[in-house]
Amino acid sequence: MHGPTVLAVQRRLLVGLVVVVLAVTVPAGVGLFNRTSESSPDGDQVGAPLATCDTQGLIAKRELRGMWLTTVSNIDFPSKPGLSEAKVKDEYRGWLDLAEKMNHNAVFVHVRPSGDAFWPSAYAPWSEWLTGVRGKDPGWDPLAWMIEETHARNLEFHAWFNPYRGSQPATSGGAGADFDKLAPDHPLRKNPDWAVAFPEGTANSRFYFDPGNPAARAHVEDAILDAVNRYAIDGVHFDDFFYPYPEGHEFNDDASYARYGNGRSRGDWRRANVDTFVEEISQKIHDAKPWVRFGLSPFGIWRNKSSDPAGSPTHGLESYEAIYADTRKWVRKKWLDYIVPQLYWNIGFDKADYAKLLPWWADTVKGTGVQLYVGQADYRIGEAGPWSKPAELDQQLTLNERYGVSGSIHFSAKQVKADRLGAVSRYRDKHYATPALVPTIDRLRDARPPAPTPTGARRDGDRTVLTWRPVDDVTSYAIYRADPEAKTATLVDTIRANDLPSWIGPAASYCVTSLDRANNESEPVLVG
Q1: What keywords sit in the KW lines (predicted)?
Q2: Which of 169, 423, 438, 460 is the most exposed place for a label (fewest CB within 10 A)?
């Protein structure tokens, strides 16, 4: 894998450097690059020529880049259950190192994989994938620590929940559909009428919280909101697990359907149950913390055009019919801040062509304010056929740019790290070579935060040391390297807001902006 960026290395190596703060402040100007070089008090020039900064001259991608970090069955993290606190922390830091190398700006961490929790919750037992024992307290708070560590790298932390899964099959190390094998404090042991076993009577059976039972739905919402209210998460994220995929079996929700179906067809009733859940949790999240983003990563096909004229030019399984997920409706109703369809097919695939599905999704979000990210199939790299070519994901990301996609999430972290065929390196170098700012959700657009106030800059050999006063109520700063001849300034780094903001980079002139927790950006100011 690629090493850390030069700037990141410099920043880490020089954490202990004592910065000499100059008693000179430099105001922002209205034109770009209209000053000549100056000398610092000790004679070292600080940029030549110096520049003032203008918003129109800033160059930065607004693009979410992330990866899914899967905890269920220890697919990605932790590498196995029952590790020590120190080892879990060491492994997580390694994943953040990878995110930095990839120039990602967000991680999506599985914190409720199967009715359990990676935080001390009154609504769910401790995860067996963390401790090795269902319901065992590890003696520390992994969620709080992971958020703090992630934010220290100025990455967003999106908490990933599987809402309705209550257990994992016994064949994969879970409790299966056996109440006695659930953690002692598992809510389904206390409320067995909330549980549906599926596929019933098979070795792969597991428990689901019944989406048609209002009390079960309310409990799931409360479990998610517990994390929203108590932790500084940046987003709430679901994938496509609501009702289970059919697998040739029926989901036995006869009891709740008889009680709450009200004469609707089973399919319409199930879709209404999921609609209600999505709408309710969206409203509750935004009421609690308006800046927390809510998004979903559904199966990539809503409906085929053969089933609905509004559907996509595909011939595959439909989330609308198979798992009762009316994803297009959720977008059009604006219940989501973003949607991440899992477009896990190659360009040219006959049943679901990436090059045809992508424009359908781009058209679906148009005018709604819901942002389109794409779930990318890094896990398929190296398979026979088109996936045996290292250019497949590179070409898909090129199409994303053509259709104005706002970002990508890669499945999963282990596959990103593996870099099979050099395909990850390839798309990283072509599409993620420079940092990017996380897009601002339309719902969260607000007045710009205050700009930084420079306190000085000095030359330290071939490096420039920048300092500025901390800005209240912002989460991060963006640093742009100025190009006086081109009259532009290009994003080179972002850092988390702290009490003594400073930055060290190659000798040059720099512009700095503030960003609030909704990623609104201030006017730029010259700091070096």
Answers
A1: Lipoprotein, Membrane, Signal, Transmembrane, Transmembrane helix
A2: 460
